[in-house]
Here is the input.
Amino acid sequence: MLYHLFQSLKEYDIPGQGLMTYLSFRAIMASIAAMLFSVFAGKRIIGWLQKRQIGEEIRDLGLEGQMQKKGTPTMGGVIIIAAILCGVLLFSDLTNIYIILLIISTVWLGGLGFADDWIKTFRHDKAGLSEKSKLIGQILLGLAIGLTVCFSDKIVVREEAPKDSQAIIAEESSDRAGVVLKTEEGNALETANAGTNAPVDAVKSTKTTIPFVKNHEFDYKWLSPFKGRWGWYGKWAIYVIMIVLVITACSNGTNLTDGMDGLATGTSAIAGVVLGIFAWMSGNIINSDYLNIMYIPGSGEIAVFMAAFVGALIGFLWYNSFPAQVFMGDTGSLAIGGIIGVCAILIRKELLLPILCGVFFVESLSVIVQRTYFKFTKRKYGEGRRVFKMSPLHHHFQKEGINAIFTSPKKALPEAKIVVRFWIIGIILAVLTIAMLKLR
Here is the structure.
């Protein structure tokens, strides 16, 4: 809102008004606004939750310190969502298609998680919203995002920046450069010029970023068995399916990781920083040329959203760190996982997520492996056996040794130590992900 206010008043030459044209300034301000909202408004929201006795119902699973958390307020994800929206609504360009999609994703998945927490808390149904209902909600969002990416003229890419990109002296060249929209066959569809003499050819494409190969590009059309017109339908169908899978996997992966104080919050913040950097680079002609990655006009605005995202999580961590004063619940975990997935898709970095979000990936994999092996051994031997002492993986380190394939460590580790070690792993994976863009 402040961004649009200053834009409407630009003819009056207000001192400092030019700052609002810089992504860097708006990203910093969005992060600060979201962080302050989380800290100060969060305290009031936690107090309200405590008065209403909206506390977590804890099952005794034999984990160290587990029962001490009984009664801790849940549904704290509303703090994260409200803080993100606060920073984004104040300092982002609300006409930007990427911002619109991210806001819709945040509200949609936050509402889905809120419904689950509401059923658990107020109806005292531990099962909450059924897995089928959650899955349907996530798939519907994935389809909406996928079809928008497929058909919107505003979502285009340029695989290589112009050779004279160094001559463009502007931090936000992605916002002001003219764009010539073309199909991959080279037919011009639309020309838009926003004030520079440096037009940029852009295409509707199913290409994405992948490490270890020349130009870091992978095209989903390579997976299509068809050619010609059917090939066009085939590649976009594959891409939309991939988008649905990524959003669903990220949302559920974060949900599974949210089992210790500060674990999902801190790990998500680390991933958010990297995705914000990628958005910044992809939306800037000069930076994308330097990294030899596709230039995505307008995607730099995503950096403002991700700055608010990280700020909101850091502010929430003030209360969610061990010992937690509030839990995010599914309201927060489904939303922040979905945001990570949608952001990665929009900046064409979804194939980097297994590395960047390696903690979420391994947590999800541990649950799949545990359930599959348990069912298999129960059918074969009449008694289910376990690979881990407990899943998701973070609980494996929190439980004393029992009959399982992997029993190390024998003694349970303190929760705070497990969380910090997972954060360290997340930081290492984040640095590795960034470094991959310079590897051939």
About this structure: The chain is about 55% helix and 5% strand.
